[in-house]
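Q: I'm writing up a methods section and want to include an example of the input and output format. Could you take the sequence below and give the corresponding predicted structure tokens, formatted cleanly so I can copy it straight into the document?
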Amino acid sequence: MTPSMRRELTELPERMKSLPIDKRGYPIPAFVQWINGEPDFRVMNRQYWHDCVVKGLCWVCGGRLGLIQVFTIGPMCAINRTTSEPPSHRECAVWSARNCPFLSRPHMVRREDEFTEQCVQASGVSIKRNPGVMCLWFTRDYKLFADQNNHPLIQVGHPDHVEWFAEGRKATRAEIMESIRTGLPALEELARAEGPAAIRELRTMAADAIEKLLPKE
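A: Here is the clean output for your methods example:
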């Protein structure tokens, strides 16, 4: 018997309706790794990551992307314009921001254990927290670069515009500022190891993001 989707979730966009539903009633994004016949949302499929960046596929539904691509990122990624996850269609990104438990619930913590530490070969330096707010970054391009361990990372292109979400709704400026206030020290610590110039550059990037990307209220 095919599982039914949870009642509290909003209707799936047409592009996501072909995704399978897990035992809890959540649609299983295309990037999720299946292990022993079960989807593990904590682990992304590395081959699929490669397919997304090479073939221009949506990170969530698996369909082909158009001209506008949407990255779902936290405030720190919006500041340094760096992420490890490829872009999605707008409707897939919005649905995820409104319904994904980790993205829509500020106090949700991603389950990490010895298994995920072995499976997940994260690029860059991950800040292990739920930022509480998410930024949908609309852009027409991005480029790949290698991190300090020669793992691939993504530099997102100039944004056409951004949309901010918290708790499944549009986020307020105060909520975004609080997330920046609590997350920026982690980036500053990393920059400090590179020297004063890196700290100055980070603070300039943060000020620029606050000025240009945040809503007025």
